[in-house]
Amino acid sequence: MSNSALDPTPYAAQLAAKKARLQDLLAPFAAPEPAVFDSPAEHYRLRAEFRLWREDGGRHYAMFEGDKHTPVLIEQFPIASQRINALMPQLKAAWQGSEVLSHKLFQVEFLTTLKGDALITLCYHRPIDAAWQAEAEQLAAQLGVSLIGRSRGKRIVVGRDYVEEELTVAGRAFRYRQPEGAFTQPNGVVCEKMLNWAFDALGERDDDLLELYCGNGNFTLPLSTRVRRVLATEISKTSVNAALANIEDNGIGNIELVRLSAEELTQALNEVRPFRRLAGIDLKSYEFGSVFVDPPRAGMDPDTCELTRRFDNILYISCNPETLAANIAQLHDSHRIVRCALFDQFPWTHHMESGVLLQRR
């Protein structure tokens, strides 16, 4: 991406176009005008993944547009965090000077945080061994990062397999472990804005919150301070383990977390069948006044959407405005949109993150 592509004038036009698109999608539901939360124009992306391309006797960072045979060679990546941009040439110099590090290296992944933590994953088309680990340990110390080596059936961790982030919501700092390979919001500045919007939209309540698709507890932690209790669900083992660690690290005691999919929890609440993973949790003891959902791009399936209809308040964060609109269409006869927002997690693309608060009519 050229520096001219980061000119603020076209960025403002792109953001206005996204706002208009969201308004068009929500117009059938009489949605209020969305609050718009912009992004920094550069250095906003906290993760990046590059293939390596062999040319002129060396390996170079590369991305591909269209086919996999026409690479765009990259030296710097302006949309990525400053930490990633600082690490890119240092890492490249390291593999260029080491046959052990460079041999059959085909992909590099960076994971960083606003706090400045960094984890680099090196992927190989060959077995990695003790010799690789010895050089990786020296490199990790030199760069001040954690390193992970991956090859078929092998994973070697040098340091930690997660980064540590800190996000501030309503004046309180929350600490997060963000594991390698698990989903995290790529734009930390906008993520913090999303958390604060959701915190404000939910409001102070004296009942309980159900959260579906909780991930590593990104929203769970701050929202738990607004309600009496939270029951949160997530299906990914890696994310569940991270969420449990984050709950403990932040000293929060009113969250129960269960490893169930949204569909399975719907079955449990409808008493279709019992789940051993719910042993010791009395679902009937909860007084749910609100549900929070942050589903994948496909949105909520029809049964889960019907489940959310039970709640007076539905707080919905979406990474796909089309499936958001489809879910709202299913709920529109019982709930109305009282607040909505656009979060520009993905500048310079057509993608957008949005949020709505629906309340029972």
TrEMBL record:
Signal sequence residues: none
The keyword tRNA processing belongs to this UniProt entry's keyword annotation: yes
Binding positions for S-adenosyl-L-methionine per the UniProt entry: 185, 213, 218, 234, 294
Annotated catalytic residues: 319 (nucleophile), 319, 353 (proton acceptor)
Coiled-coil residues: none
Molecular function (Gene Ontology), one example: tRNA (uracil(54)-C5)-methyltransferase activity, S-adenosyl methionine-dependent
EC identifiers of the protein: 2.1.1.35
GO biological process: tRNA methylation
Keyword Nucleotide-binding attributed: no
Reactions catalysed, as given in the entry: uridine(54) in tRNA + S-adenosyl-L-methionine = 5-methyluridine(54) in tRNA + S-adenosyl-L-homocysteine + H(+); uridine(341) in tmRNA + S-adenosyl-L-methionine = 5-methyluridine(341) in tmRNA + S-adenosyl-L-homocysteine + H(+)
InterPro entries linked: MeTrfase_TrmA_AS (IPR030390), MeTrfase_TrmA_CS (IPR030391), SAM-dependent_MTases_sf (IPR029063), TrmA_MeTrfase (IPR011869), U5_MeTrfase_fam (IPR010280)
Gene3D superfamilies per record: 2.40.50.1070, Vaccinia Virus protein VP39
Enzyme class: transferase
Keyword annotations of the record: Methyltransferase, S-adenosyl-L-methionine, Transferase, tRNA processing
Cellular-component GO terms for this entry: cytosol
Function: Dual-specificity methyltransferase that catalyzes the formation of 5-methyluridine at position 54 (m5U54) in all tRNAs, and that of position 341 (m5U341) in tmRNA (transfer-mRNA).
HAMAP family xref list: RNA_methyltr_TrmA
Assigned protein family: Belongs to the class I-like SAM-binding methyltransferase superfamily. RNA M5U methyltransferase family. TrmA subfamily.
NCBIfam families linked: trmA_only
Stated name of the protein: tRNA/tmRNA (uracil-C(5))-methyltransferase
Gene that specifies this protein: trmA
